[in-house]
Amino acid sequence: MNLKKLLFGSVIFFLFVASKTITTTDYLNLPATPYEYSVSLPNYYANNVNPIDNTPATNPITNHGATLGRVLFYDKNLSINRTVSCASCHKQSEGFSDSRTLSIGFAGGTTDRHGMTVLNARYYQRGRFFWDERAATLEDQVLQPLQNTVEMGLTAAQISERVSEQPYYNQLFINAFGDNSITNDRISKALAQFVRSIVSYQSKYDIGRAAVNNPNQPFANFTAQENQGKQLFFTPIPQGGGGCAGCHGTEAFVSARPENNGIDLTSTTDLGVGGVAPIRPNLIGHFKNSSIRNIELTAPYMHDGRFTTLEQVVEHYNSGIQAHPNLSGILKDANGNPIRLNFSTAQKNALVAFMRTLTDNSVATEARWSNPFCQTNLSFTGTINSGGFQSSNAILVQDGSSTQVQSGSTVNLVSGKAIILNPSFEAKTGSVFKAQISTCQ
Ligand code: HEC
Ligand code: HEC
User: Fold this and answer.
1) Does Isomerase show up as a keyword for this record (predicted)?
2) Residues with CB under 6 A from ligand 2
3) 110-142 pLDDT, tens per residue?
């Protein structure tokens, strides 16, 4: 959705006072029957992906649990000044990652590292999270950004308080957990369920893969270049390939453990896994990589977002690997030096073309993972109070191109919220009109 902030002073807009009773649907665009969050994955997931699922027996995905998690994930009330949600840094359109090199928290501060995708988080077998694996489980991880002083800035106690304040959570907790007790433990479980539900299995790769017995066979739906890239990706370095699948493996394209891939000669500012207490010198410079499915959507790349294109990433592996003391053995030659792939331009382009076959637009667009605070064609009754400005925390901003305002009908709004109209629209107090509105929290 293309939203644009309009400036005060440049528009005429109105404050409406609603007179109706607020219901959950006034805030949330949720289906009457919840979406399906535990879909059955393709057969070829059975061998090497299902066994590495980190879902604990104590927190299986349910449709109501993931629905609650979805609302929490998109709710800006969960940051101290109500400006940032999980989705501010894990954007659906950007493969649940962040196109900014470093993400920006509630007060404008930047995160220490590049925002990771949460796609396929479920398939990291070690079950640890963050680039340095400092979170022991996903259930532990999801409460950390809420309390991070740069990211969302709540205290532990404020988490459940903020959730309890919002009228729409009562029913969502009853649906998910059987009663309306709102605890951090349940918030963590629901968020983790939603995150684990975000998996990719509908890319061009998947269409090709479904038609063959093993991924090494050429895919009929691939171009020759994509098939060449696939072969380079899967073939080990000593056999003339790029050895990529050695660290970005299985059909989920995930790593089995943190590694050092030689992007730096030494580790100075960010020690990675080895820097998490207790300091482990042999793991300094090791980083977790989540999944490279949807990699085309998740630029920039690496824990510090240093590479902006996949071409740069491939060139790194081709010619740029540095002799970090903890460089992975896979990336060393027989003498212990960093390998040089010496690929031709055609080979490098083929690798990039292959990685693009992992793009799954369903992940970037499907409603079950989208912002439930976005609604279209809202219909509330209200009264125009006056022209002027409003400062509630939920200013709804609409891109002028998709806002249509027609005279002749009634306008509407949720109490305490206001709509800033298209700057080209002007009306006086007392006007009646109809707004075709698409709004997000
Ligand atoms: C201000 C930006 C920001 C916000 C808000 C934010 N994150 Fe993140 N997220 C990041 C960054 C940056 C990282 C990587 C940090 C690191 O590794 O040190 C990350 C990492 C993660 C990971 C780890 C993925 C992996 O494979 O290890 C998960 C899961 C995650 N975030 C989920 C969430 C959830 C759930 C929320 C909301 C409760 C949230 N994030 C809010 C920026 C953000
Ligand atoms: C020895 C293990 C290893 C091998 C082999 C390897 N990688 Fe990586 N890869 C990693 C690690 C670890 C990271 C994250 C490093 C960091 O951020 O510091 C990474 C990051 C990436 C990223 C960026 C991911 C992101 O989310 O930002 C891409 C793309 C990538 N690798 C592609 C490849 C390709 C293509 C090959 C083969 C030419 C390859 N890798 C070979 C370990 C490896």
Assistant:
1) no
2) 242-244, 246-248, 259, 261, 263, 287, 289, 292, 295, 298, 301-303, 313-314, 317, 328, 330-331, 351
3) 999 999 999 999 999 999 999 999 999 999 999
